[in-house]
Amino acid sequence: MKQESSTDKKQKSKSKHRIYKPRKKKSVEEDAAIKYLQSQYDTINADEIKTFKDFPLSQKTLKGLKDNNYIHPTDIQRQAIGYALQGKDILGAAQTGSGKTLAFLIPILENLFCKKWTRMDGVGALVISPTRELAYQIYATLRKIGGLHDFSAGLIIGGQNLKFERKRMDQINILICTPGRLLQHMDENPLFDCSHLQILVLDEADRCLDLGFETTMNAIIENLPPDRQTLLFSATQTKSVKDLARLSLKFPTYVAPHEQAATVTPQSLQQSYIVCEIEEKLAVLWSFIRNHLKQKVLVFMATCKQVKYTYDLFCKLRPGVSLLALYGTLHQERREQIYEEFCRKSNVVLFATDLASRGLDFPRVNWVLQYDCPEDVETYIHRAGRTARGVLGKGEGLLILLPQEEKIVDSLKQSKIPINKISVDPSKIMYPQKKIETLLSDNSELKQTAQRAFVNYLKSVYLMKNKEVFNVHTLDTDAYARSLGLIVPPVIKFINKHRKPIEVKNQLRDDAEETISKLKEKQDASESKDNESESDHDESSKLILEDLKKKKEKKEIPKFNFHAGGYDSDDDILKIKQKNINAMPTPVPETQVPSKASAKPLTNAALVKKILKKKIKVNTNVKFTEEGEAIDDEKKDVKSELARQSKKSGGGLDIEKTKELLREEDKFDVLRFREKVKAKHREEKRKLKNKKKEDEGEKDDFGSQSESDGPDLSWLPDPDKVYKKDEDGSKESSEHSNDVQSESSDEESENDVEDVRPPKRKLTNEKSKADDHVKPHKLKKLEDISAALSVQEAEAFAMQLLKRNKIIH
């Protein structure tokens, strides 16, 4: 055996137990690097910068940029990053696809790096985005370029697990979020702390500060510390003093490298528009997709319901290309899947609302088709900016307009947007209307979706601010419904509600103008004729007023009162009031149409009050007998003494006393039930007796009806005298049976409740024995008597015997 040396033992002990060696402190090197970088911030010149290395940036940030092929900065990045590193507030405006995301992410990383921010310090940077998809895109970009830094980043958006976000809120340094979910954490999460916030960024700032997010953003800004750096970026930047004052900006620097450019949109974007009727829009869209199957197309629509219906319909029509739909009512996971799928595919059509118009970087989009007219110029710029992104990006944009919407083109050209009108070859338009009608007739769900899309589109047009471009009353709604496959258009209540007042106002205006012109003519005539008397003027004025009244009667819209059932003559729609005709005419104001709010519907409370005034008992159930007399409810009449005492005492409810009271009342309820059962049995027996009597009174086989109708048998000899020998036995048996019957009948009359029992077997046996004993003697004597009688007398005698026999039995 070899002995182990001491060196071998030491090596083995080291392998088992590793000795901890503290790492070298990098704080000295980092401090020196941070000081150098901060000293270079004031010397940044945007004109001299050609690559990101020319900026005084940390090595971790530069490596992250290089690994993701970000080498040459864009114009907005070249100008904005320098001012942001110097700590200035910025208003950044640039074309779509110009790289605004990096223009604020790089300053965030450098700011926190220079201040040695750790997880224990809480939230240092806050990025607010108006949409979830844009927040998701910013978060993905931050992970790419900032992966080498030690900061923690979090994505806080709606549709995600709120409990998961709550637990980790105190560990996040860079927070990317949407306004609604951020405010929810501010109000509900005790771990959320932004008191040490260094930098605030609003991406698509004009959208974040508009009316849709006004109250939410005001609440968020109130919770943020005033000593912070603020960066605002958007393609259409706000310059409102009110918005900037809300954010407490300190002498912000306005950065807009493309403001002096010839066009607001990218130069590589080719833009055009077409004009078509409303019933042709769906056919144009279908034809466009069928002719661009090998391209990536993004179609913008006004409402979620339109997107859903068009997507469902085209999926059933099968155009031959992949179809996707992105709108707000989808679940968040589904929205993320659709976003990633559209980014990944090359031949696909995406139907989307304006949710996808802000900031989303879809790669290699060939066409942006604006199916519905945009609300304003800013919306058009953001929609069209989803294509032709980047330096070498190319794309085309097509805007579909109705004839009355063509006025928006002037606004686009005034905003330096080059757009040309083109025409569509009618031979290449395919009309799938018959197929659509067939699909809707077979599928009720698709038909309901079409109806919702129809209504929501008209609502969106009605709610638009620019009424010169968007006028819902000029649309041919019937033709639009037919183009969607709806043979019968749905009823649009808000259009019908507002259409009549407009027509009435137009009529009033025309009548007022005619009145003024006639008054002017009469006044001129009166001035030329100096000798004309004042009475002539009065007569002429009366004639004019009579003429107006006649017109009013013709054009007046009748107002029906469905409660009264007649026409209210006092509420006249047209009322002409002219006191002094000779004076200079004044413009007649438009008469207000009486609103329907005055005739309020009868509420439930008012109906109850009316019933109480009339003293009508509600929910009462009264039962009546066959004679029409009301039956009192026995349940209301309490029987027990305890219940009577509780009625007299009144007061509150005692549970124990109430239980005892119910037990006592239950006893009486059982007795009532038994009495009802007995009464029911008595009624049944009474009916049976009546039925027996009716059966006895019916005609028999011989035609006799009753004893009174039978023949007179007084001339016959008395059988008791003739048959004295057999009388004793037969009498005893008959008397015995008669006594039994009388006793049983007495018992039945005394106790009707008990069941009728059959006669005892002992009696029946005795009776049958007596009958057998009498039978042979009777037969002989009956034969002798029947031989002496005629036929009619024999029949009468036989009937009498049969009846007597029936009574005995």
Word description of this protein:
The protein is α/β, with parallel strands linked by helices. The chain folds into 4 domains: 27-255, P-loop containing nucleotide triphosphate hydrolases (Rossmann fold); 269-483, Rossmann fold, CATH 3.40.50.300; 493-567; 719-808, no CATH class. It is 49% helix and 9% strand. It is built from 28 helices and 18 strands. Helix 4 runs parallel beside helix 5, helix 17 packs across helix 18 (444-463) and helix 20 (493-528) packs antiparallel against helix 21. The longest helix is centred in the last third of the chain and has 43 residues, at 655-697.
Record the SSE blueprint.
Blueprint: H1 6-16, H2 27-40, H3 59-67, H4 75-85, E1 90-93, H5 100-114, E2 125-128, H6 132-145, E3 153-156, H7 162-167, E4 174-177, H8 179-188, E5 199-203, H9 205-208, H10 214-222, E6 229-234, H11 241-246, E7 253-255, E8 269-275, H12 281-290, E9 296-300, H13 304-317, E10 322-326, H14 332-344, E11 348-352, E12 367-370, H15 377-384, E13 395-401, H16 408-414, E14 420-421, H17 433-442, H18 444-463, H19 477-483, H20 493-528, H21 534-555, E15 560-561, E16 566-567, H22 604-614, E17 623-624, E18 630-631, H23 641-649, H24 655-697, H25 719-722, H26 727-750, H27 761-788, H28 791-808
Parallel strand pairs: 1-6, 1-7, 2-4, 2-5, 3-4, 5-6, 8-13, 8-14, 9-11, 9-12, 10-11, 12-13
Antiparallel strand pairs: 15-16, 17-18
Characteristics:
809 residues; alpha/beta; Rossmann fold; 4 domains; 18 strands; seven-stranded parallel beta sheet; 9% strand; elongated; 49% helix; 28 helices
